[in-house]
Specification:
Number of domains: 1
Number of strands: 17
CATH superfamily: Creatinase/methionine aminopeptidase superfamily
Distance between the termini: 39 Å
Shape: globular
Strand content: 15-25%
Order of helices and strands: HHEEEEEEEHHEEEEEEEEEEH
CATH class: Alpha Beta
Radius of gyration: 17 Å
Largest sheet: 5 strands, antiparallel
Helix content: 25-40%
Length: 272
Amino acid sequence: MVHLKSKREIEKLRASAELVSRTLAEVGRHVAVGVTTNELDAIAEDFIRTHGAEPAFKGHRHGKNVFPATLCTSVNDHVVHGIPSDYALQPGDLLSVDCGVVLDGFIGDSAFTFAVGTLADEDYTLCRVTHEGLNAGIEAAVAGHHIGDIGAAVEARCADYGIVRDLCGHGVGRSLWEQPQVPNYGSPGTGRTLRKGLTICIEPMINHGTAEVYTADDGWTVATADGTRSAHYEHMIAVRDGAPEVLSTFDYIEDVTVPPYLRPESTSTDDT
C-alpha cells in the first residue's frame, strides 16, 4: 500500500534527509587510505546518535538475517549491503556508503560512492554516468508521470553499463522500505502513476560489466557476478505537481571532498 505524505510528514522526512546527508559528509571527511570500514561505521553511529537520532539499518531484519552495523560499506565489486569490517581502504578503491537514520519516527536514506585516492579513468566515468542516471531519474519523478518513466530515464543514461535489476529504489516514510518499488529500468508510461505527496528513494546501482549479481554467504553483501566494479548513488525525493523536490543533498559531501563524478571528463577511449 502506498501512503501519500502530508505537508507535515514531508517536513519530518526533510529533517531526516538533512541528517543523513550530513552523516554521509562526516563519513566522507574520514575516507582515506588505511582507514577501516569499521572505523567509518563508528563515526557514523556516533554522529547520528549525537544528533538525537538512531541508525535505521542497525538491527534491521531481512528474513533470518539481522544487519549488524550502521552503514552499508560496499567496496569495488560489492554493489550494496556490504557489512563494515576490519578491511583497510586501499588506494584506488571505490567505496559505496549507504546510510539510514530514524529521526522523530521518520527515515532518512541516502547513498554515495567515494573515491579512495586516485581512481582509474574508467571508475571516474562509471561514477559520473551513475550520478547522471540518478539525476535523470529525478527529473522524471513528476506528478502525472509513471514509475516506468523514472526507470526509463535511468536506463537511457546508463545503457552502456550493467544496470542492476535485482535491486531497486523504494518508497520511504516511517518504514525503511515502503511501496512502491522504483526500478532503474522500464518503459515510459508504464507502472504506477506518480502523485503529489509520494516520497521515494531513487538509487541507480550500475556495474562496469554484467548486470548480474549474487549475495555472499553473510546473507547481506551483494556483489557483481563477474567481479567488475559498481557505483551507487541515492537521493530521497518528494513528488510535486512541478519539479520534484530532492530532500537529501550531496552538497555537504562536496564541501569536504571532491566527488568522483565531478572529475573532469576523461579522454580515454572507454568514456561514454
